[in-house]
Structures are given as structure tokens and as C-alpha cells.
Specification:
4-stranded antiparallel sheet; 15 helices; elongated
């Protein structure tokens, strides 16, 4: 019977370790920083906006060499969209580099119904444009524009509005958007300075699945490198919140590994310097190992997953556990009796550990999933 009493704690320890190892293999460790945002009615209202931003992907093509040739720009945009669809058909969709609005129809509507968009100040500006000197100047600028590459395909538009009265309507409609630029480029999403073609899209998978995000980011990086290696292709670049998520996940993992390892190395080094016995260090680490295995099991059973940010606190927890072991061995060096030492410090340590548990347990009431 005494031998059974000695074996029972060892068997229990091994069982907890095995269950903890199994739970750790099944535990969902997420690096989604949005889960650290508190849940509230106001934040819930913003969730659709945040989720839309999470799925957005933007590409840019350097079109400086095309000299404003809309046909070449359109061909380059179409080639990129085709290549992206072939490579990422199940991961990426809604690719668009041109407005759905027909520029000719929109322009015609503005020309025919200009009065709908004008205000009193606009009429005063139009009067000044009708002065002889301004008319001559405007027509000279039109001639210069038609003679340049940028004026390709704009002859009809200039003929319909040689003095540029439509600009007043565009200013009212745009509210910060470059509608005139969109019309000049036949609806292509060209940057204001004319150097880049913008292509927008959206990922088709859940951007909260960090493993999928990281895989997509790696594949897209390879696609970009291969595309840019072809000198006939305009230079490609991309951006989106998914790239930030992938970089954050990678950095969080690095930080966790670094902080936990540094903490363990420092703790083990300090203990060895003080006690000079590896067996003593093992006894210091065993309670922490048992506690980690048990906590992982409970987290897996009741939550199913844990934030990587929360895992970074494990270095702090390990330090607290080592403090308890240090108290025990400090008293043991004086009493020379393990049972007596246990009995004398058991109650203070239990109370101390209870206050620590309460402090961390209070975090469960926070309106955050992290």
C-alpha cells in the first residue's frame, strides 16, 4: 500500500502530461489581433466595415512607360487579372481595374443636364470663361491637348465641351474623387499622377484563419516575383490587411519563442548558479510543467483555443511558479525536513496562489476574445 501511495502521484503527473500534450496538439492558437478589440454595440456596428477591409486586396501596375495609352493600360490590366484568376481562382475574386460606369454615357448625361449640377457661384465662373481672352486661351489648350498622346480618344469630349463647363459638375459630384481623371482614362482606375493602374479584389477565404492568410501571402509574393522577372510586364506590387496579419502572426510567434526561451534560460541559469545541482533545478521546473499541462487541458476543454498574445504571458506565469518553488527550497534548507517544510508553508502558499488566480481570472470578464 505505501508503494501505491508513492506511485499514484507519479502516475497522475504522467497522465496530466499526456493529456496536456494531446490538448496542446489540438489547441487552436490564433494570432488574430482583432480579437483583442473589446466587444460592444458600437464595435459590433463597425464589424462589417472591418471585415470588408480585412478581405480587400489591392494591386498596382507601373504604367509610366505606356505614356497614357489607354489601350495598352487596359491590356496590361486584363493580362494581370487573367493570370491572377488562373493562379488564385479559389482564393481571390472580384478583381476589377475599370469602373462599372460607362464613361461615355456618364459624360453625355452631364453634358445634357449640366444645369442640374450648377450653383450660383458656378454661373459667375462660367461668365468669366466666356470672356474673349479666356475663350482663346481655352481653345489653345484644347489644341495642345489633342496634339499630345494624352489627348488620344478625347476629340469628341473636347468638341462637346471645348470650354470645360463640365468641370463644375464633376467637382460637385466627385467630393474628393477624380471623376475627370476616370473619364479621361475611359473608366480605368489610374492614379491621379498617371503612373499606376490600380486593381482591387477580395480574398474568398476567411481572413481570420491565419494559416490560410500566411499561405496566400507567400504564394502571392512568389507570383509577384515571377511576374516582375518578365521584363515585358509592367512592375507589379500589392498591399492589403492580409499582409499585415501574416506579418503580425510571424512576428508574434518569434516574440513568444524569444521571450519564453529567454525567461527559461535566465531562470535555469540563476537556479544553477545558486544551487549548483541539476536535480534541484528539475524539481523547480516540475510544478510549472504540471501547471502548464493542466491549464492547456482546461483551456482546450472549455475554450478550444487561445490567443498567441495570451501565450506570451506564460513567461510571467513561469516566474511566479518558480517563486513558489524557491520559497519551499529556502525553508527546506533551514528545516532539513520536506514534510515539516510542506506543512509550515502550505497555507501561505495556497493563499498566495489563490490571489494570483483571482487576479488572472478577472481577465475572463473583459469584453475581448483574446
Amino acid at each position: 500500500m505505501p508503494s501505491l501511495n508513492k506511485l499514484l502521484p507519479i502516475l497522475l503527473f504522467i497522465l496530466v502530461l499526456l493529456v496536456g500534450a494531446y490538448s496542446a496538439s489540438k489547441l487552436d492558437i490564433h494570432e488574430n489581433l482583432n480579437k483583442s478589440i473589446p466587444s460592444s454595440l458600437d464595435m459590433d456596428a463597425l464589424k462589417p466595415v472591418i471585415e470588408k477591409g480585412e478581405k480587400a486586396v489591392f494591386f498596382s501596375l507601373n504604367i509610366e512607360d505606356f505614356k497614357g495609352d489607354n489601350h495598352k493600360i487596359d491590356s496590361a490590366g486584363n493580362a494581370l487579372v487573367t493570370a491572377l484568376n488562373d493562379k488564385f481562382g479559389s482564393q481571390l475574386g472580384a478583381l476589377q481595374y475599370r469602373s462599372d460606369i460607362d464613361p461615355d454615357i456618364f459624360n453625355f448625361f452631364v453634358e445634357e443636364h449640366l444645369y442640374l449640377f450648377l450653383e450660383k457661384s458656378d454661373y459667375e465662373a462660367i461668365d468669366s470663361l466666356l470672356e474673349n481672352g479666356n475663350v482663346v486661351k481655352a481653345l489653345a489648350e484644347d489644341k495642345k491637348l489633342l496634339s499630345s498622346a494624352q489627348g488620344f480618344g478625347m476629340a469628341q469630349s473636347i468638341a462637346n465641351d471645348p470650354l470645360h463647363f463640365n468641370q463644375f459638375a464633376y467637382k460637385r459630384l466627385s467630393k474628393g474623387l477624380s471623376l475627370q481623371n476616370m473619364l479621361a482614362t475611359e473608366g480605368l482606375f489610374v492614379s491621379t499622377d498617371g503612373t499606376s493602374l490600380m486593381i482591387n479584389g477580395a480574398v474568398l477565404f476567411d481572413p481570420k484563419e491565419v494559416s490560410n492568410v500566411q499561405l496566400f501571402d507567400e504564394q502571392l509574393g512568389e507570383f509577384k516575383d515571377n511576374w516582375n522577372q518578365n521584363i515585358s510586364n509592367p512592375e507589379l506590387d500589392y498591399f492589403g490587411s492580409f499582409a499585415i496579419v501574416a506579418a503580425n502572426a510571424k512576428q508574434i510567434k518569434k516574440d513568444i519563442i524569444l521571450t519564453v526561451n529567454l525567461a527559461l534560460i535566465f531562470i535555469v541559469g540563476l537556479l544553477y548558479f545558486y544551487y549548483r545541482k541539476l536535480s534541484t533545478i528539475l524539481f523547480f521546473v516540475l510544478p510549472g510543467t504540471f501547471g502548464i499541462a493542466a491549464s492547456i487541458t482546461f483551456v482546450y476543454l472549455f475554450k478550444g483555443g487561445i490567443s498567441a498574445l495570451a501565450l506570451s504571458a506564460s513567461a510571467v506565469i513561469m516566474g511566479i511558479v518558480v517563486d513558489y518553488s524557491f520559497h519551499f527550497f529556502s525553508h527546506l534548507s533551514q528545516d532539513k525536513d520536506a514534510i515539516k517544510t510542506r506543512n509550515s508553508i502550505a497555507f501561505p502558499l495556497i493563499v498566495s496562489s489563490f490571489t494570483t488566480i483571482v487576479a488572472f481570472f478577472s481577465l475572463t470578464f473583459a469584453n475581448s476574445e483574446a
